[in-house]
Amino acid sequence: MAVFGSRKEFKVIVIGAGVTGLTLSHALTKAKIEHVVLEREDVAPAHGSSIGIHANGSRILEQLGCLRAVEKLCIPMKQFVTRLPSGRLLNRSDFFDFVAERNGYPFLNVERRAFLQAMFESLAEKNLVKTKRRITDIVECEDGIKIILSDGTEEHGHIVVGCDGVNSIVRRMMWEHAHKVKPALQTSYCCLLGIAPTPTGLGIRDMTCVHDHGFSFLFLSQPNQTYFFVFFKLPKQAKRSVNCRWTSEDADKAADSVASHPISDSLEFGELWRTRIRGQLVSVEEGIFKHWHFGRLVLAGDAAHKVDQVSGPATTELIYATQVSPNFALGGNTGMESVVVLANELYRLKAVTSSATPTKEAIRTTFQRYQELRMLRVQRVRFLSGLITRLQAFDGIIMRCMAQWIVPTLIGDKRIADQLGCLLKGSPKLDFIEWDSRRGTIPWCDESGVPDPKAPHPRGHGFQRSTALFAACALLLSYMWWSGALN
C-alpha cells in the first residue's frame, strides 16, 4: 500500500510538542526539512514546575534563535545552598558563577510552561504545530508511514519521531510493530513538585538542597516564584503500570508528612506548600532503552531515555531500569542534545539521497548511527545524575558522609564545576549552520578540535582513582561517626 503516490518530498512527523519536540521542530526548520508536529494537549499546559537550562541547552537554544526569549523569562542562577535535615546551613557558594565561567553560559531556571510558550512563539511557522491531536494508530506502508488520528483524519510522512515522553505512544506502537514485549519502567522514587510565591529565606536566584534520610528538598528561586521538588524514596520498587497516577489527596498526604521539616533557618516546608500556586505528586521513572528505533519509527528525549537517577534492575529491553529525579536538571538538556544529533543525521540523509525520499535501509542506517552517537553520552549523564540523587537523599552511610563532609570540604564547588564543565563540553550543535558559541575556560570539543573523551565509559581510570579516594575517605568518616568521634 502506498501513502504518497507521486508525491516524493521527504517529510518528518514529530509526535509531541514538549521540550524535545519543539526543539526538533526548530532544528528541522533550520535544515529545511518538511515536517509537522502533533500534540495531544495544548502547547504549554499548566503542568510541572520548572526546567533548568545548562550551558549545553543554552548553546542549542542560541543557535536556534530562541535563547534571548528564554533569558527574558528569568535571571541567571547564582548561589548553591545546601542544608542539613535540621535546616542548618551546610554550605553556600557562588557555584553557578563558577559554572558560567567554565562553558560561557549561565544556568537558567524557567517555569516549564513559560519555556514551552517561548519556544512555540519563536517558531517561524507556528501552523506546523497541531494541537488536540490524539493518535489511534500508526501504519507503516511501502513508501512512507501514516498516522491515524482520533478525529478520523490522517497525517502522512516518511518517518515518525516520538518526542512524546515517558508514556510514549510511539514507543508502545514501535514494540508492537517489532512484535516485542513492552518493557515496564520502574521507580523507587516519587516527587512532589510545584510552584509557590518566593518566601523570605530561599533567596531570589538560589538553588537550595535540604538533605534528609530517604527524601530531600530542592528549591530553585526567582524573584517572584520558587519551584520546589520533594523527592521521596518509595518503600519498594514498583512497576509504573502498578502505580502510574497520584491523586491530589496523595499530594496532600505527602506534603503533610514533611510539613514540619525546616527548609531554611526560619521556614518550614508546610508554610511554602500552603501558599502554592500549583503542586502535584508524580512517579519519577527512568530508563535507557536498548532499542530506539524500528522501521520508520525513532524515539528521542524521555521516550528513549530518562537520565537522572539511581539504578535498578535491567530488563531485556532496558539497558538501565533507573528511576528519575531531576536533581541536577540534566534531563531536558539531554533531550535537546538528542534531537540536535538526530536533525544532523536527517540533514545528511536528505543531502546524500539521490531521490527525494530515502530508502528504508538508508533510514535504518541513519537511525542506528543516531543511537550510537548518543548512547554513551546518555549513560554518562545518567551516572552523574544518579550519584547526585543518592547524595542528596543520604542514601546510605557512605552517601551521607560524602554529602556532609567529603564534597563540601575535600572536593569543593569549583572542582564540581570543573567536572560539570567537562561533561557539558562534549555537547552537540547543529553542524550544518556556521556559528560560534560563547566560550568559557573549558572549550567546546567541536570547536576546539579536541575530541570529546566519551569513548571510554565514565568508570575510566581517572574516575576509578577518584572513586577509590572518596570511598576510602567515606569509610574512614563512617567509622568515626559510628564510633562517636564525630558526634
Question: Could you walk me through the main structural features you see in this protein, from its secondary elements to its overall organization?
Answer:
By secondary structure, this protein is an alpha+beta fold. The chain is built from 14 helices and 22 strands. A seven-stranded mixed beta sheet has the order 5-4-13-14-15-12-16. A hairpin with a 3-residue loop joins strand 14 (215-221) and strand 15 (225-239). Helix 4 (95-103) runs parallel beside helix 12 (413-424) and helix 11 (397-411) packs across helix 14. The longest helix has 33 residues, at 360-392. Residues 239-243, 307-326, 455-470 and 476-487 have low confidence and may be disordered.
Give a short synopsis of this structure:
This protein has helices spanning 19-30, 55-64, 67-71, 95-103, 112-121, 169-178, 248-257, 269-274, 331-352, 360-392, 397-411, 413-424, 445-448, 461-483, and strands spanning 11-15, 34-38, 50-53, 79-83, 89-93, 108-111, 129-130, 135-140, 145-149, 154-157, 159-162, 186-197, 206-210, 215-221, 225-239, 278-283, 288-289, 293-294, 297-299, 309-310, 318-320, 323-324.
Write the layout of secondary structure elements.
Elements: E1 11-15, H1 19-30, E2 34-38, E3 50-53, H2 55-64, H3 67-71, E4 79-83, E5 89-93, H4 95-103, E6 108-111, H5 112-121, E7 129-130, E8 135-140, E9 145-149, E10 154-157, E11 159-162, H6 169-178, E12 186-197, E13 206-210, E14 215-221, E15 225-239, H7 248-257, H8 269-274, E16 278-283, E17 288-289, E18 293-294, E19 297-299, E20 309-310, E21 318-320, E22 323-324, H9 331-352, H10 360-392, H11 397-411, H12 413-424, H13 445-448, H14 461-483
Parallel strand pairs: 1-2, 1-11, 2-7, 4-13, 11-19
Antiparallel strand pairs: 3-6, 4-5, 8-9, 9-10, 12-15, 12-16, 13-14, 14-15, 17-21, 18-19, 20-22
